[in-house]
Specification:
single chain, alpha+beta, Alpha-Beta Plaits, five-stranded mixed sheet, two-stranded antiparallel ribbon, 9 helices, 7 strands, elongated, coiled coil, DUF4349 domain-containing protein, DUF4349
Length: about 325
């Protein structure tokens, strides 16, 4: 024992460290690595969240929200309208307001006011008599009148009657010694009849209106049908292959042409009757009553003694 050297404490510590520290270092290294990985994942997740948040914020800044802009602008404009109107009214020479584009979602313009003659019910519903009248078929009337009058002078009275009719845009279609056939525009029929009645003593008058609406429509329908058949026959004539077929089609075309001309003449005549009313004026000459030139015969002889005969002759002496 005396020959053994004493062991130094530092060496003992180093030996102990060699046996203990490596396992501890390995265990600490594993723990340190796990902690490092966990912390790295946390940092990476935080970075991703921050990047996503920054991207959303930039997108929101790039596309601003205009959801309330239109309504706010419309309200602001409407609230400013009365002041602008009052300012324009106060000026003596107002300026024309500048055109402003209508925003999306703005209210549509108000409907125009009701036309004159439209009736409005208590509930707000309105009915237009003019629309109902337009829906009804128009009646086509032909007015005729006959007037008999007693006059003293025929020729001057006839001239006066012609002047009345010509002033109203009419004319005389027939004239005889004691009769006139006058044509006046239909709208002046009553006015002409009243004016003519003042030319003499009317002994008889009569006027009437004939409804020719159905006849007028029937003539127009027949004319339209005849024109369509004429057009088809003309097309057939162009495709005719033989002389016989050509002659037959030409005969039909000639008949249709004559029928079309007759229908047109009837329509024209009826249109003239509708446009111009007819007034027949019959004049009966009235003769002047002449007093007898003989002496006045008094019923009682004693009246002659009173001088009545001389009084009756007094007007003749003053002529």
């Amino acid at each position: 024992m005396l020959g053994q050297q004493p062991v130094r404490p530092d060496r003992q510590l180093r030996a102990l460290a060699r046996r203990v520290l490596p396992p501890l270092r390995r265990e600490a290294g594993v723990r340190t690595m796990k902690t490092f990985v966990r912390q790295s994942l946390l940092v990476l997740a935080a970075a991703l969240l921050a990047a996503a948040h920054i991207g959303c914020a930039s997108t929101a800044r790039a596309v601003p929200d205009y959801s309330g802009y239109e309504s706010a602008e419309s309200v602001a404009y409407d609230s400013a309208a009365p002041s602008i109107a009052s300012e324009n009214t106060s000026r003596s020479a107002p300026r024309a307001p500048q055109a402003r584009p209508q925003a999306r979602g703005a209210a549509s313009p108000a409907p125009p006011p009701l036309a004159a003659g439209a009736a409005q019910t208590s509930g707000g519903a309105s009915t237009s008599p003019s629309a109902e009248e337009q829906a009804r078929p128009t009646r086509l009337l032909v007015y005729t009148a006959s007037l008999h009058m007693a006059i003293f002078e025929v020729n001057p009275t006839q001239e006066a009657a012609l002047n009345i009719v010509e002033d109203l845009g009419g004319y005389a279609s027939r004239r005889t010694t004691n009769q006139l056939t006058l044509r006046v525009p239909a709208e002046y029929f009553r006015q002409a009849l009243d004016a003519l009645s003042k030319l003499g003593d009317v002994t008889h008058t009569q006027w009437q209106a004939h409804d020719v609406s159905e006849s007028f429509r029937d003539l127009n329908i027949r004319l339209q049908n005849a024109l369509e058949v004429h057009a088809r026959m003309s097309a057939i004539l162009e495709r005719a292959q033989s002389v016989e077929d050509t002659l037959k089609v030409e005969a039909q075309l000639a008949r249709l042409t004559q029928e079309i001309e007759q229908l047109r003449s009837q329509i024209e005549n009826l249109s003239q009757q509708i446009a111009f009313s007819t007034i027949d004026v019959h004049f009966q000459q009235r003769h002047h009553t002449q007093l007898p030139a003989d002496d006045y015969l008094l019923p009682f002889p004693w009246l002659n003694e009173l001088g009545l005969e001389s009084l009756l002759r007094a007007p003749e002496a003053t002529r």
